[in-house]
Design a protein that fits this description.
Number of helices: 7
Largest sheet: 4 strands, antiparallel
Structural class: alpha+beta
Helix content: 40-55%
Length: about 150
C-alpha cells in the first residue's frame, strides 16, 4: 500500500468553511479545496509514509506543527479527507526544522522503529525537514498549509 503527501496552501479564512464542508459534503469539500487552494511551491517526491514518520519524529521531540486553535477544524477535515495537518506560519519552528539541527542517524533509527528500514531513510528525513521548513517559511500571515497524507 502506498501513500502520497501533498501540500496545499489555503487562505486562513477558508478553514472554517473547509471544516463545515468536510462534515456535510466531502465532495463539496474537495471542490472548495481545489478552488481556493494552491499547490505549495515544492512538491513532495517521497512516499507519504516518509512524511508521516518525520511528523511522528518531530512530535516525539515536542514539535507539534499544528496549532491548537485549529484542532476542531483539523478533526473535521481529517474525518472526511484522511490524515491532514493544518500548519500556520510559525517562525519559531524554522530553527527546529533546520536539517542541520538533526542527525541523519536519529532519523534512520526512527524510520527503523516505524518498520521502514531502507538505505536512504536518513536522507529522506532530512529532505522532508527541509521541505517543511521551506514551505512554512513561504507562508504569509493569512495562509495555512494543508498537509495531506493519503
Amino acid at each position: 500500500m502506498s501513500a502520497i503527501a501533498s501540500l496545499t496552501v489555503v487562505p486562513r479564512d477558508s478553514i472554517t468553511e473547509l471544516a463545515r464542508l468536510a462534515r456535510t459534503s466531502p465532495s463539496s469539500f474537495r471542490a472548495y479545496l481545489a478552488e481556493h487552494g494552491s499547490r505549495a511551491r515544492q512538491e513532495y517526491d517521497w512516499s507519504g509514509y516518509c512524511m508521516l514518520y518525520v511528523l511522528t519524529y518531530l512530535e516525539e521531540r515536542g514539535i507539534d506543527l499544528e496549532p491548537p486553535e485549529l484542532n476542531a477544524e483539523s478533526e473535521a477535515i481529517n474525518s472526511a479527507y484522511g490524515l491532514t495537518t493544518l500548519i500556520t506560519p510559525a517562525p519559531r519552528f524554522l530553527d527546529q526544522l533546520d536539517p542541520g539541527a538533526h542527525r541523519e542517524e536519529e532519523l534512520t533509527a526512527h524510520f527503523e522503529d516505524m518498520g521502514m528500514d531502507f538505505e536512504e531513510s536518513g536522507t529522506v528525513g532530512l529532505d522532508t525537514l527541509r521541505l517543511l521548513r521551506d514551505s512554512i517559511s513561504d507562508l504569509r500571515d493569512d495562509d495555512v498549509l494543508l498537509l495531506h497524507i493519503g
